[in-house]
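Collaborator request log, item 7. Partner lab (contact: R.S.) asked for a structural prediction of Sperm-associated antigen 17 to inform their binding assays.
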Amino acid sequence: MSGLYPRLYNAWKLANPLSSGAKVQSEVNAYWKENKTNPAEVEKTILKLKERSLRKQPTITSALANLPIKKVDEASSNLLGNECNTISHATSQPVIDNNPVPEDADVQTGQHRVAPTQEKILEIITSNSAKIVALQQIKDTGLATSDQLDEVSEDGKKNKIDCLMEKHPELMEELSTLIPKPIGRPSLEAEQPLLLKTIVDIICPHASAEARRRSELLRSCVTLNDLHNELKNEGYNLSRSGLYLRLLPKNSTTIEGRRHVTTVPVRLIRPENNERKNNPDGHFASATVKYVKDLASLFGSGCVFVCSQDDKARIPLGLPAANKQAPILMHLSYKVKLPDHDWVVASKHKLIPSVYAALSIDDKLKTITYSGPTYVAIRSGKHDKSTAESHGKDFRRLMELENYANFVKSPGANTMKPIVCILSDGGPDENPRYPKVLTQAAHNFKLFDLDCIIVATNAAGLSAFNPVELRMAPLSRDLSGLILPHDHFGTHLDDQCRTNDINLEKKNFQKAGEILSEVWSENKIDGYDVFAEYISPADGTEEGSKVLPLSEEWKCIHVRQSHYFLQIVKCDNRNCCKDWRSNYPLIIKNRFLPPPLLFHKSENGIRLCEPTCTMDHAHSFQDLPTRLILTSLEPSCPKFRILPFDAYCPSQIPYLEERVCPTCNISLATKTAKAAHKKVHGHHIHGVEAIQPDTMDGDRLEIIEDLQSWMDNNFEQIF
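Returned to partner:
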């Protein structure tokens, strides 16, 4: 009988919304005094009360009952009048009645009328109305999903009424009065339904995430004039002011801000006086990232897998996971308990989430979108860490995920797509110029038999442009009000907050990670699933995937590494690499992507700028297809027979000469890498004579052929 009385009271209250609380309380007490020894009877009463409360909710029927009926046959008129009388009669009747009046009876004559079709329609309308009320309540909290928002919209109501009209044409005239008639000129969204989606598609490739990753707002770097011209080119006809009204206003509380009714989540960046010093490599690094996107759109979704990765901020245990206010749905039967402190429970009691966002390629628009499934690997901040090795393991885990299959695997095969592009942050565990990142990328390159793997990163201070950052805001919103327990299986800390049981500590961390993974796995971002899981520190070994060190000879042939860019490409030696799985070598003639060059368009045509030229609006780095066409405009560098990839990177220009091998002219990312590379030329390797400078000329292709020939002759000794 535990909890039976509260359930009875709640059901009684819902069934009598017009009665005062005191009256309901007295009626419930009187009933409970007589029937508290008979739980079965009380359960039946609760069920009847719930059924009656559903019929008493404000529904479309109440509006239908008050509408004037025009030229309806006598049977329908009597039936509609009976239903209206039934509704008004039911509202004034007591909830519990030993002789209730049938709901389909005429109140005046007392005769019972059977109307199964109308009863079915009434049931459908009542059910849909209750559902709309529930969805409206969820919408008011601010936590409604996109599907729920669509369902509660006027279009959703109209679709339900249209379905009723098709099934019951005899009531078409009455039901049509419930559909509001539009007044005045139709909106542009009605005449051009894809307008808002096109605005987002144009903005996305040039937008950054919100500064604190707390909302899904896109911060546009495209001017309003540029956006207006792009829409005109797409065939949309609207004014510049009309376009601005479809973007988020600067201040929604002003009179002008209230005119922004139907908007997309895009806000134009206004000039501010908080500008910090720009990174001089910003344009160059952006050009390398643009190369990756151009390569992906060039080869298409069937051949390329694009992934953006980054680590989210560490999440503390025993404290609110996100220090922000947001509407929270909670059960009122439970008391919300918050900690009375805001310091960490103990040292390193945090979780490390690593986020991997697959990016879909729109072959029709020939661009990379920001949509796709999301994978989150959660690790203990005390017993594990985020490293290049952990990212390599997570990348291999993507091949096993079902929601990633269409993005990672080749169509109709169980193999990874031949070209992989990774957009990462500039941290030490992800930066493409570091040796451990190269080792993990090369291991995955060999393991999955890839034609090419490219890792690119943006310059420092521009991490907001990493596409995975747009996935951070929805994940952060799920953390509002969430407190992860640090002692689920019992405390592992002593009075001085020091660990006294390491095994219990690991179990508590695992439980907290599993709770967080369950919360995130229930989410959907842009219609795609989120899959999160806790990675136990015990999973440190992988069977059959031991990472082996790379020889300098292998790196000479397959690797080109620079400050912001890493390329690993197959060679043409079939004793070393398997056959090409794509036509990559036919498109990229020298196997490696050429370095970005700065061009200037003038009245005399397009010309090449000097590496030390100051960047302004008249100078630009070209996209990859244009760069491949303009190979004849490559500069002649007396210092280098092969132009280094970082030749136009401002911060690296002073260090190029000390990082280029004087023998083969290969550019290395660091001086340490150059010192290791010298072993290829300066020593005998297993009794085999090393390559000498006079055996090669300055042509890039001949150098590569010489290196490959040398590899063929000395393959067994090297490997």
